[in-house]
Amino acid sequence: MKIAVIGTGYVGLVSGVCFSDFGHDVVCVDKDPSKIAKLEAGEVPIYEPGLEELMAKNVEAGRLTFTMNLAEAIDGADAVFIAVGTPTRRGDGHADLTYVMAVAEEIALAAKHYTVIVTKSTVPVGTNRQVKQVVRKANPDLDFDVASNPEFLREGAAIDDFMRPDRVVVGVQSERAGDIMNDVYRPLFLRDFPVVITDLESAEMIKYAANAFLATKITFINEIAALCERTGADIKQVSKGMGLDGRIGNKFLHAGPGYGGSCFPKDTKALARIGQEHAVPMQITEAVIKVNDEVKRRMVDKLLELCDDSFNGKTVAVLGVTFKPNTDDMRDAPSLTIIPALVGGGAKVRVVDPQGKHEGEALLPGVKWMDDPYKAARNADLVVVLTEWNEFRGLDLSQIAEHMVTPRMADLRNIYSNKDAKRAGFDSYVSIGRAPYEASADQED
Ligand code: UDX
Q1: Taking Cα atoms as reference points, which of 336, 404, 256 lies closest to residue 395?
Q2: How far is the CA of 384 from the centre of ligand 1 (A)?
Q3: 154 C-alpha vs ligand 1 centroid, how far in Å?
Q4: Can you list the domains of the chain with their CATH numbers?
Q5: What is the pLDDT of residue 92?
Q6: Is CB count within 10 Å lower at the N or C end of the chain?
Q7: Closest by CA position to 144, among listed 112, 186, 99, 182
C-alpha cells in the first residue's frame, strides 16, 4: 500500500520510517528544503537510537523516499498522515493548529481520488471534524475520510514503541477508512498488539488524557518526594511499595526535577485549555502544571542550600541538560530553569551532555561545554546530576570527589545513594525524596 506522511519532525519521520519497514511504500514530505536535503543524504536531523539505520535500510529497499512536493507524494496514496507540529500557541495555551489546517487544505486541493486523511499530530478534541470541513470546503468533490491516529512513542525509545506498542488507537467514521487503517497496521495486528477502534473524538481525547495522566503520576510522586524529605521517608522505597500494587503500576513513579519534553508540558496546557473552553475545568491537570513548575524551582532552592545560600563565585559541573536521556531534545527541560538560575546567581557553570550541546548552546548562554565529567568536576564546588544518561550512572565518584574544591553533589535523578557518596568521600550529597548525606553529621553519629 502507498502512504504519504506530511511533516518530518519527530513523529512524522519515525512513523514514515517504521511504516516503510512494515513493507509499505512511503513518501515523507516536508516544506523545509534543508531537512529534505539532509534526509536524502541519509542523515537524520534528530537524535534517535536506531532511526538512521532503519531509514537507510528502507531507502535502499526502495520503499522510502523524501520530497518537498506534496501533490506528487499523495498521488495514489491510500492514506495521508498529517504529522506536523502543534505547538502551544503564545498567549492562550491552545494547541496551534495553523500547520495542521494548512496541510489539510493542501491535501484537499491536490488529491485526485479517495484517500484517508489521518491526523497523527496531537490535536484538541474536535480537530478531525474541523479537518473534514476544511477539506470539504477546499475540494467539495473529493471522496475522502478522516481518521485520528494519535502516536504514543517516547523519544529515545521511539522505534521500539512504534514496533511494539502497548496499543494502537484509531478513530474513524467509516468502515472503508477502518479497513485501510487496518491494512496500514496489519503487521502489528498480526502480532496481536491491541488495537482500540473508536470514534474521532475519543481517539483525540485518549491522547490528551493519557499524557495528562502520566504527567500527573510523575508530579504526584514528586510532591510525595518533597514530603519524604521532611518526614524521613525514602522515596525509592515508597515508589517501590506503591508501584507493586498492580492498580498503580511501577512506571512513571521516578521522582526527579520535574517533567519536561515536547509532549507533557504542551499537552497538559492544551487539555487545561480545552477544559476551560467547555466549562469543565481540568482542575487536576491545572494543579499538575503549577506543581511541576514549582518542582523545577524547588530544585534551585536545593542547590542554593547546598552552596551555602549563594551561587556567586562557585564552580558548578552540571551533568545532563536534555529533558531525559537518549535524546538531544531540550524542550521544557528542567535544565532551562535550573542553569540560568545558577548563571544568574554568579556561578561558573560547566556542562556535560552526550547529545545536548547542539540545541543547548543557544538556549544556555554563559556556560562552558565540556566532554568529560571528570574534567568538568575538577576544582568545582558542586556537581549536579540533571539527566540520568547511562554515561553518568557508573562514574568513579571517588575520582570526582578527590579533585573538587568542596566535594558536594546534587543528584536530581537519584542515580546514586548516600552510601555511594560516603564511600567516595563527598562532604555532602543531596538527592530527591531522601535524607541528605552530610559527612560531618555522619562522623558525629
Ligand atoms: C511522552 C509519552 O511517554 C509518550 O507516550 C507521548 O507520546 C509523548 O510524551 P516523551 O516526552 O518522549 O514521551 O518522554 P517520557 O519518557 O514520557 O518522559 C517525559 C518526562 O517525564 C521527562 O522529563 C522524564 O524525565 C520525566 N519522567 C518520566 C520522570 O520525571 N519520572 C518518571 O518516572 C518518568
Answers
A1: 404
A2: 21
A3: 7
A4: 2-198 (3.40.50.720), 205-445 (3.40.50.720)
A5: 80
A6: C
A7: 112
